[in-house]
Design goal:
- The protein folds into two domains: 1-75 and 82-239, Glucose Permease (Domain IIA) (Distorted Sandwich), CATH 2.70.70; 244-340, Immunoglobulins (Immunoglobulin-like).
- The longest helix is centred in the N-terminal third of the chain and has 12 residues, at 4-15.
- It is built from one helix and 17 strands.
- A hairpin with a 2-residue loop joins strand 14 (303-311) and strand 15 (314-322).
- It is mainly beta.
- Residues 1-16, 21-74 and 348-356 have low confidence and may be disordered.
- Strands 1, 2, 3, 4, 5, 6, 7, 8 and 9 form a nine-stranded antiparallel sheet that branches. It has a four-stranded mixed sheet with strand order 13-10-16-17, with no helix packed on it.
- Bound molecules: zinc ion.
- Zinc ion (ZN) is lined by residues 19, 22, 125, 127, 129, 218.
């Protein structure tokens, strides 16, 4: 139990900087979700490396509960990333560098990932949120040309939930389709349309423009066309830290229907650290053409994990090994439980359609 409290605190802290709204310009502006009570907390760097609390004083009596003595290892540190393009299998495409430098938090907010649903607003998240400090430089995730830079995407739309945003069309694509990345909620933009950027070049600064409850970078990967409905999970595109890996899963009911926003627990065998992940919401998001996943969690240290799902109250679990630099995969099918191993053969109708 002693590790639960700090994890909850971290989750509350991180929730304070999530996108207020994840929809594209194509959807009408709506009400902002009510910020959580923790929104007043310092958004600067909620997970500073020196977060480990001092050891508690010796208990006055042996029966007293002790405070936790160590922070969950959701720490402000990751190993260096694998060099891009990192493609350990023919199906993988970790082509992108992180859009935030390694001296900042440069990984996704854990409780509002791609496909996540923002509290009660019902908005499905079409990207990831990286809770870097206000003003932190935002970097091109790969080489490419600026196709949009301004308030909103493609048009000067004052109601755009993206705020100040930049879109890059990358020099490379995937499966003959163009690849775009989106950087939103910026405080400043340093580039103009038509400008070419090398990987790592600064294109702007982290901010809180548009609909957001706090400063962070909203980052999207779009494949095929630069449209709201063409996003894919950035956690399958950003190179993982060396020695760490990625877990992808397809979570279905017994009749093989995808389960939306379903709760899944991922538990490290050695430390007991637990990640609570939810499957994608049921709209506006796409699965990878090979993995056909509805759940991804990246940045997992290599090792053994238990994946646990309570299916109508029935506890189902399986053990999965996360391998360095690799994507580990499982399927879950309701009362039939887990089936680890490679993804099912893709349905051609669900595979990516060719570029127009
Ligand atoms: Zn976002």
């Amino acid at each position: 139990m002693k590790t639960i409290l700090p994890l909850l605190l971290a989750v509350l802290l991180l929730a304070s900087s999530a996108c207020g709204r994840a929809a594209g310009d194509e959807t009408p502006a709506g009400e902002l979700p009510t910020p959580s009570p923790t929104a007043a907390l310092d958004p600067g760097n909620p997970l500073a490396p020196d977060q480990t609390p001092p050891p508690p004083a010796a208990p006055a009596d042996a029966l007293r509960f002790e405070l936790p003595t160590a922070m969950e290892p959701i720490s402000a540190w990751r190993p260096p990333l694998y060099p891009v393009p990192w493609a350990p299998s023919p199906y993988d495409h970790f082509y992108l560098e992180r859009p935030i430098a390694a001296d900042e938090v440069n990984w996704p907010l854990p409780n509002y990932r791609y496909g996540g649903v923002f509290f009660s607003s019902g908005q499905v998240h079409t990207g990831i949120d990286i809770p870097a400090e206000y003003g932190a430089p935002v970097l091109a995730a790969g080489p490419g040309t600026v196709v949009s830079a301004g308030w909103g995407l493609f048009e000067d739309n004052p109601a755009s939930p993206y705020g100040r945003a930049v879109v890059l069309r990358h020099d490379f694509g995937y499966q003959n389709q163009p690849l775009f990345t989106v950087y939103a909620h910026l405080s400043e933009i340093d580039v103009i349309p038509g400008q070419w950027l090398a990987t790592g070049e600064v294109l702007g600064n982290v901010g809180d423009s548009g609909h957001t409850t706090g400063p962070h970078l909203h980052f999207e990967v779009r494949l095929g066309s630069d449209q709201f409905f063409s996003t894919y999970n950035p956690e399958l595109w950003l190179s993982p830290p060396q020695g760490w890996g990625v877990l992808a899963g397809r979570v279905m009911d017994t009749n093989r229907n995808l389960l939306a926003t379903y709760q899944v627990f991922v538990i490290a065998a050695d430390s007991g650290q637990t990640w609570e992940v939810r499957t994608y919401g049921s709209e506006a998001v796409n699965s990878d053409p090979y993995y056909r996943e509805n759940l991804v969690i990246s940045d997992l240290p290599a090792g053994l994990y238990t994946v646990r799902i309570f299916y109508y109250g029935v506890r189902k679990e399986t053990e999965i090994e996360i391998l360095p630099g690799r994507v580990s995969y499982f399927t879950f099918q309701g009362y039939l439980g887990f089936a680890p191993g490679p993804p099912p053969t893709p349905d051609p109708l669900e595979a990516l359609s060719p570029a127009p």
